[in-house]
Amino acid sequence: LRSGSNRGHNRPVSHHQPDPAPGAEPERGFVVAVLAPGVDEHEELVELRELLRTAGVVPVGEAVQRRPAPDPRTYVGKGKLEELKQAFAESEAESLIVDDELDPGQQRRLEDAFKVRVVDRTQLILDIFAQHARSAEGKLQVELAQLEYNLPRMRGMWQHLERLGGGIGTRGPGESQLETDRRLARRRIGLLRRKLRGLEKQRSVQRKARERSAAPVVALAGYTNAGKSTLLNALTDADVSVDDRLFETLDPTTRGFEHEGRRYLVTDTVGFIRRLPHQLVEGFAATLEETLLADLVLHVVDASEDDERLEGTIAAVAAVLSEIGARELPAELVLNKIDLVDPLRRRRLGNRFPDALALSAQDGEGLPELRARIAERFADRFRPVKLLVPYEEGRVLTELYELGAPIEERTDGPDGVLVHARLPERELRRFAPYLVAEAPAAEAGRP
Predict the structure, then answer these.
(1) To which H or E segment does residue 63 belong?
(2) Span 63-75, mean pLDDT?
(3) pLDDT at 215
(4) Cβ atoms 77, 46 nearer than 8 A
(5) 20 to 30 Å CA-CA from 289: which of 60, 161, 318, 355?
(6) Could you tell me the pTM of the whole model?
(7) Most confident of 157-171, 293-307, 389-403, 425-439
(8) By CB neighbour count within 10 A (0-12 exposed, 13-18 middle, 19+ buried), where does 62 fall?
């Protein structure tokens, strides 16, 4: 334990300070975790401290108990609970932060024991999501996930009646009010789901428009704070927020860039963490499915992390990709933040990940190589052709441009517009009436 006791398994509290709202006093939280023997305590709590920093909470104490599994009633064992209550009182904390997902019974018993708010890992992440949601869809997804989390935990102002255990004196307004609250919550959940289905239809229409353009779609996936949004901005000249906080990007953002006359779309998605709560994966399925519909996944990692942390983040992302069914998609590993890595470690990373691209989205190092690698992935998707479009059929030129800038050269001649273009394979049939000849072999070999 920390804060007044030297017992237990201790690690120094992180020196990173949270980012509270201007003028606001950060909340003081006491961290408790039950870890199985052999689990790295430092690695486990580093992520929780970063979550707290993002949420605006200062950890003023920590307690770790080693046991195979949490106590089914009170999370920590009975003896540890008494020890924890003393340390919590000495720390002057305002809330108890649990690095696990508590069931409603565990949370209720801890709240009764400590007489303070008990926040588990899922609730903490939901709070961060609520802070960072910007779009209408993101806000609806957060509200739905919060309601589904809170529904089995609802006690509200009637919890004093609930503790009486029912019977004489407990029936009447208390019970009916609690049931009313639950019924309203269920009704709101149904409404939110219907709204999200409507937004999904809108996104489906937008997706079909992108598919008609035949522009390859590249999804950025990776551990939260790996620099995906910075990479999106660097590739596409976008202006997505890149603050140094976990889950800074919740809403999928798609932007395009051109390379050697061809257009590519890049989608930034929500960042992953270890043990991403399952209901969050479900709640944000609409966001994560953008990854599923990509032609290529760029798995972005922070190259400045130490080996153990790097292994952990790569495994965490792989687990979530597998859970949403995206594990089989073509992927490229991208070692971002290489500008923070010394030459010796660069060589080690090169030996360890020989096929990975090392780059810095911050200063632009390696970006030309990344664009070339993406283009190489889709080189066989396009066929160089020569078309002659009569002047009276100008709509054909419009249709060509709608495909995502496939026209490389155009010349006005006596019979119409002579066009050199790179057409997607699936569009060759549509423009076959205007086909003059395949481009020469030397031209076809151009990248």
Answers:
(1) strand 57-66
(2) 93
(3) 76
(4) no
(5) 355
(6) 0.66
(7) 293-307
(8) buried
Residue 168 is predicted with a pLDDT of 43
- Per the model's pLDDT, the better-predicted residue between 78 and 174 turns out to be 78
Q: How far apart are CA 171 and CA 345, in angstroms?
A: 68
Of 424, 394, 427, 425, the C-alpha closest to 410 is 394
Given a contact cutoff of 8 angstroms between Cβ atoms, the answer to whether 55 and 129 are in contact is no
Residue type, 259: H
CA dist 317 to 110, 149, 244, 324, 403, Å? Answer: 32, 23, 19, 11, 33
Q: Are 289 and 323 in contact (CB under 8 A)?
A: no
CB 241 within 8 A of CB 227: no
Average pLDDT value for residue range 324-330: 78
Whether pLDDT at 282 is above 70: no
369 band by pLDDT with thresholds 50, 70 and 90: very high
What residues contact residue 265 under an 8 Å CB cut-off, 6+ apart? 210, 215, 216, 217, 218, 254, 255, 256
Mode of pairing for the β-strands spanning 382-389 and 357-358 = unpaired
Q: With a cut of 60, say whether residue 385 has pLDDT above it.
A: yes
CA gap 304, 192 in Å, rounded = 40
Q: Going by C-beta distance under 8 Å and a sequence separation of 6 or more, which residues neighbour residue 329? A: 291, 292, 294, 296, 297, 321
Instruction: Give the number of other CB atoms < 10 A from CB of residue 306.
Output: 10
Length of the chain: 447
Q: 181, exposed or middle or buried, with CB in 10 Å at 0-12, 13-18, 19+?
A: middle
Residue-level pLDDT at 373: 93
221, β-bridge pairs: 299
Which strands form 117-120's sheet, in the order they lie side by side? 57-66, 27-35, 95-98, 117-120
Are the CB atoms for 241 and 90 separated by under 8 Å?
A: no
How many of the other CB atoms lie within 10 Å of CB of 275?
15
- The least confident of 96-105, 127-136, 220-229 is 127-136
DSSP state of 168: T
How many other CB atoms sit within 10 Å of the CB of residue 398? 8
Confidence at residue 356, expressed as pLDDT on a 0 to 100 scale: 94
Q: What is the pLDDT of residue 160?
A: 43
> Helices 121-132 and 41-55 sit at what angle, rounded to 10 degrees?
40
Chain centroid offset of residue 13 CA: 26
CA 346 from chain centre, in angstroms, equals 27
Q: How many CB atoms lie within 10 A of CB 392?
A: 7
In the block, which residue shows the tokens 């031209």? 443
> Which burial class, exposed, middle or buried, applies to 333 when counting CB atoms under 10 A from its CB (0-12, 13-18, 19+)?
middle
Cβ atoms of 234 and 366 closer than 8 Å: no
